[in-house]
Amino acid sequence: MLHLVILLPFLLAAFIPLTKYLPRFHVGWIVLPLPAALFLYFLTRIPSIQAGSNLMTSFSWMPSLGVDITLYLDGLSLLFVLLITGMGALVVLYSIYYLSKHSEGIRQFYVYLLMFMGAMLGVVLSDNLMVLYGFWELTSISSFLLIAFWHRRERSRYGAMKSMLITVFGGLAMFAGFNLLYVMTGTYSIREIVAVAGSLPGQSMFIPAMLLILLGAFTKSAQFPFHIWLPDAMEAPTPVSAYLHSATMVKAGIYLVARLTPIFAGQSGWFWLVSLTGMVTLIYGAFKAIKQSDLKGLLAYSTISQLGLIMSLLGLGSAASFFAGKEEAVFYTMATTAALFHLLNHAVFKGSLFMVVGIIDHETGTRDLRKLGGLMSLMPITFSVALIGAFSMAGLPPFSGFLSKEMFFTAMLNIREFDILNTGSWMGIFPVAAWLASVFTFVYSMILVFKTFGGELQKAKLDKMPHEAPLGLLLSPVMLVSLAVVFAFFPELVSNSLIKPAMASIHNGVLAPKDTFEVSIHFWHGWTPEIFMTIGVIAAGVLLYRSYSRLRVLDRKPSGRITLTHLYDGSLQYDGSLQLLERGSKRLTNAYMTGSNRHYLLYIFSFFIIALLAALIGQPGISFGMEHYAPLSIYETAVIAVMLLAAFAVPFAKSRVSAILFTGCVGYMVTLLFVIFRAPDLALTQMMIETVSVILFLLCFRYLPKLKKEKERLRFKLPNLIIALGVGITTTLIALAAMGSSPFEPISEYFLKESYNLAGGKNVVNVILVDFRGFDTLFEIMVLGIASMAIYGLIHLRMEPGQTEAGKVHSGNSALRLRSNDVILQTMSKGIVLIILTFSLYLFFAGHNHPGGGFIGALMTSAALVLMAVAFGMDTVRKVLPVNYRLITGVGLLIAIVTASGSFIFNAPFLSHAFGHFQLPILGDTELATAVLFDLGVYLAVVGVTMNIILSIGGDKQWNS
């Protein structure tokens, strides 16, 4: 079921584009039932998870690499999937009324949203680190598409690119950390790694793995100094901000830290990095939020601050692992309890506030605080939602944010007792910093409410007269913000059902075997230090807010002086770094991308020579001895001499035709060597390839100007000579080393012995092509097919006759028809073509046990068709065989793939073949093998590829149309 849960959003996303054929209604109504149904399903799993019955399903994917799609639902993942699906349903409902059904790209919006939802579900449910990483990066890609939804806006494109670059950078670092964990443990399974976590701290890769993984988590959850992408991501539509930046994407890093706490907790580095990074982010985000004039900008920095709060609590909660099995452990786990409860509260109040900001923008046409005010009486419901959400964010009673803020203060006060790291009184910094950040949080919460809804209405600064939003827009924020009240008065709804199982998942093994977590959340605990801290926050916050109003901070223009904010302006550093990289890459690219093919070949061949010669010289045990080679016969010597002379003559040829003929001579001499070596399959293949290649060369070269010998300086010719000698010597040494230094027994003996027993064929070469090395053959014909389609596409990009470019007129006579006027050739070809085609069919059917096969038969067929084209012209070939060779190529590939996949029906590996003997009418006892079907696919693909290339380059306009 869990696999289906992840798959459903992607399946629905694939269906969404088809809705354009349905009656005109908002596509969001098709999307809405899915997250709602998933939310209800996971609600039904609460009792079993609460009872400790975790759910796991697994699908074997790449077992040889240790990568299986194993999904695991426990308390922690249940908490997150409820956030993902519940918030997803409310956001989709909100988007139906926020985005018009006639909006440009509305279907793409929901496709991207469903992709993101499926990816997030994959992140929080995956037990395998590699699968988790795949979904992790998919969230970055889908969020990039969502943020750039209004892609015609420069700022939207900028924000999307910024978020993707930073989060993908962190994701790659995390990927490296995951692989280090695999090297240490031999598994990608999180559960299995947790089981052996006690043996990891002493290993040399443990700290690097921890740092790399935290880098991924910090970039995803917008922790300082990687927070800079989140404010620019506010260019996304408001439903995207409400979903990604309050409850899902930014919580992925929080989830990762919580999930891997059993592995890294108990290490001082983990404790300090997570807790201090969170505290710095908390204070910095809160301070920056006060200075924002844009409502979404304010919410962006408040989100950064709140994420820092949750991250710091997870860091402080890891202190419990230093006291595993002791009573003190429970004392410090209260920080984790506060983190989980505030995780829920933050999704509730921040999601509702993002929706409120969207409503304000929708109804007033602006989000600028300097233009807003006096909306309280005009938008009373929206004001009520904003008031509850902001007060909950500020930690004021009687809302749930007050409870989690009190728990936050408790955790900060408790950590002062943590002296195992010999920190002395330094732990006192935590409650002081927490109190200061809470004051800033109070201030920006008041700014959000009273600067928007209080004061006087500024009609002159608004594009339109504001009014209350329609019911559809209000439904989602009202339902969300109601939970801030419900969770406040009935915290037990989530304390034992969600938070307690999640605690058991995070602090696995911290408590004594028979102990359990007790999560107790109440409004009143007496006159505690936390209460006095809250009173101090309110008092200081009111004073600061009043001072803020008097100083009119929002209306002040930048003075140009260097401030603490200017010392670290992450966006400026980001932009400067990108510009530096772009300039550097441009200079480097211009240095070697000269536009000269000669230069590019020099680079390639130089690397070829240096890399391979270095490997040959540096590898011990390489031998170039030829003492085991058989002596050369007089026939072999003669053939090799002719081949060398022909090859030597190519660069001295005075015409292109001569060069082609000398090159063909080299190929035909190789064919003779195969004949002498008694390799008929290779000889036939080489002969056909050489024949077709010569024709291809002739077709291509007739478009080129006449060959001219140009006088070049020695400095031009010398590098060519060095490269030519280097490549020749390197290739020769590699061939000699391969023959004389192989540490393995030749596999040819195995092929000769098992060819008939395993594949039912006596022709070892053909059996290797269609069975033993069938994968190679399948990919080769795929590559050939792609190449032929590319050639066809390039040919059709040529200018049509009569069109001009740069003042030049292209006539239709540039491509001469491929046809001979030789009557003798035409007369003889009629019989020769039939003979060749018959022989090609024989080669195809006989190839499994005798010389031949689909590849050779296809080349022979192509040679016959080319001969027909040369003798009678392209039109004759088209009339005799009116087929589309591109389609023939596709059919051949399809037959090969279907035949290779058919083995799955019998639970056999891909490309497994079967054979047997059958009594057939007339033929009697006949061997039939499924490999022949695969060979048929090869035959059709090669014929299609060859003829498509020949006829495309042949320039027959009627054929190519």
Structural summary, described in words:
This protein is mainly α and 961 residues long. It has 38 helices and 6 strands. Strands 1-2 form a two-stranded antiparallel ribbon. A two-stranded antiparallel sheet has the order 3-4.
Instruction: Give the count of helical stretches.
Output: 38
Unreliable segments of 5+ consecutive residues: 799-816, 956-961
Order of strands in the sheet with the most strands? 1-2
Strand content: under 5%
**Global mean pLDDT:** 87
Compute the CA-based radius of gyration.
36 Å
Q: What is the tally of beta strands?
A: 6
Q: Fraction of residues in helices?
A: 55-70%
Dominant shape: elongated
Q: What profile does the largest beta sheet have? A: 2 strands, antiparallel
- Kindly name the structural category: mainly alpha
Termini separation = 51 Å
Notable features of this structure?
two-stranded antiparallel ribbon, mainly alpha, 38 helices, 961 residues, two-stranded antiparallel sheet
Topology:
Elements: H1 2-15, H2 28-31, H3 33-44, H4 46-50, E1 55-62, E2 67-73, H5 75-98, H6 106-125, H7 129-147, H8 154-185, H9 190-195, H10 206-220, H11 229-232, H12 238-244, H13 249-264, H14 268-290, H15 295-317, H16 328-364, H17 380-394, H18 400-414, H19 429-453, H20 471-489, H21 492-506, H22 529-551, H23 564-567, H24 570-592, H25 597-618, H26 634-649, H27 656-676, H28 680-701, H29 714-740, H30 748-759, H31 764-772, H32 774-796, E3 804-805, E4 808-809, H33 823-846, H34 854-872, H35 874-880, H36 885-901, E5 915-920, E6 924-929, H37 931-953, H38 957-960
Antiparallel strand pairs: 1-2, 3-4, 5-6
